[in-house]
Structure formats: structure tokens, C-alpha cells
Amino acid sequence: MVNDCIFCQIVAGDIPSKTVYEDDTVFAFLDVNPLAPGHTLVIPKDHHETLADVPEDTASDLFSALHRLTPVVEDAVDADASNVAFNNGEAAGQEVSHVHAHIIPRFDGDGGNPIHAIAGNTPDLSDEELDEIASDIADAR
Ligand code: 5GP
Ligand code: ZN
């Protein structure tokens, strides 16, 4: 546990939360400033800052919980869909440095945007540049 981490304190029960799910490794609770009814945060209980810091077995547990919770959250608020996303690192807008997935229920005509609206200036990449990026990723994987 990291003492000055809000989410570690929530997991420990030192800060109250509207808990919706808990198992040995994963914890989920309602966002205190919801972007939609049912906006839920799903976190590993152990403190890790970004996705790359999460051990693989915990990452699997996290995804399993997301997989099970997402339809349940949608049903609970009668949503039509959801965005499921991580702000993964400060430059991507992560404010709480304990990795967390957002489940944000979406409704027909809610005025929101798809995940494509997140990025800033979009690049104009040539086919060669795309090939180079793809092979850099494939080779390092
Ligand atoms: P981030 O920008 O880091 O991806 O999102 C952090 C989220 O945590 C925000 O949506 C914010 O509303 C939520 N949050 C911050 N502090 C608390 C808290 O004390 N309790 C709960 N339930 N949510 C919090
Ligand atoms: Zn933490």
C-alpha cells in the first residue's frame, strides 16, 4: 500500500467508496465524479502506476473483472453501450497514479464522443512509416 495514494486508501477501507466488486486482487467502485450514471473504476488492489507495471497474472485478473463487470454495469443503469478505457500515464490524462480502468456507460443520444475524440493532433503517416512502426512493435513484443 502506498500511504498517500487515494485508491490504496479506498482498498484499505480508510476512505469510503461505493464498492461494487471485490476479489483477492481486484477492487471496483463508483467514480466520485461520474461522467455518466454507473461510471465505475476497476483497479488492482496492489499499487501499480501504469498498465506496464502490472504483473501479468494481475493483469489477467483485472481484465476478467472488467469482462464480467462491464455488462453488469450497463444493465444496472440501462445503458446502450459503454466506453472502457485507461488513462495510461500522466501525458494521457491519468491523474490518480494507481492504474484504473474506467467503465463509462453510454446512452443513445447522450452527446458524448467515441474514443477517437481523445487524441490531439492526428498524424499523417505514410505506408512506410506505418510498416516501420508495426515492425518495431512486433519485434519488441
Ligand atoms: P484519471 O484521470 O486518473 O484516469 O481518473 C481518476 C478518476 O478517479 C476520476 O474520474 C475521479 O473522479 C476519480 N476519483 C478521484 N478521487 C476519488 C475518490 O476519492 N473516490 C472515488 N470514488 N473516485 C475518485
Ligand atoms: Zn495505490
TrEMBL record:
InterPro entries membership: HINT, Histidine_triad_HIT, HIT-like, HIT-like_sf
SUPFAM superfamilies for the chain: HIT-like
A biological process term (GO) from this entry: nucleotide metabolic process
Motif Histidine triad motif in this chain: where?
98-102
Instruction: Provide the protein name.
Output: Histidine triad (HIT) family protein
Tell me the organism.
Haladaptatus litoreus
**TM segment ranges:** none
HIT domain location: 6-113
